[in-house]
Design a protein that fits this description.
The chain is mainly alpha-helical and 119 residues long. 78% of the residues lie in helices and 0% in strands.
């Protein structure tokens, strides 16, 4: 009886991990719908890690080397993506860089600063 209850608890644990892992796709889908383009929000990577860790623990309990390998390799990818996101958090994407008045005037060909000086 104890073994049966333990097995059920492990199955429930694995299902929770799978729900968290699947939830990342729901988050990504809703974010993309909101933005009207494909985006991968930071929450996607956190859910990937949370679900991946739970599923890895479940795979170790089941002694499933294929499942363990798949989840452990995925965790490296998720962690690396978060590392890159946090490393570049202070940088604006190239299309959003704010140009100085001088740069904007030079790019538009309308250098009003020189016009004012000449006047």
């Amino acid at each position: 009886m104890v073994s049966e209850m333990s097995d059920q608890m492990w199955i429930a644990f694995g299902l929770v991990g799978q729900l968290v892992f699947t939830g990342r796709f729901v988050v990504q889908w809703l974010s993309s719908e909101r933005e009207k383009k494909s985006v991968v929000p930071v929450a996607f990577w956190y859910l990937s890690i949370a679900g991946g860790v739970v599923l890895l623990v479940y795979a170790v309990h089941r002694q499933d080397p294929v499942f363990m390998l798949g989840q452990s390799l995925g965790l490296f990818v998720y962690l690396r993506n978060l590392q890159l996101i946090h490393r570049n958090r202070g940088e604006a994407p190239p299309q959003l860089k704010i140009h100085s008045e001088e740069t904007a005037a030079q790019q538009s060909g309308d250098d009003t600063r020189n016009y004012r000086k000449a006047a």
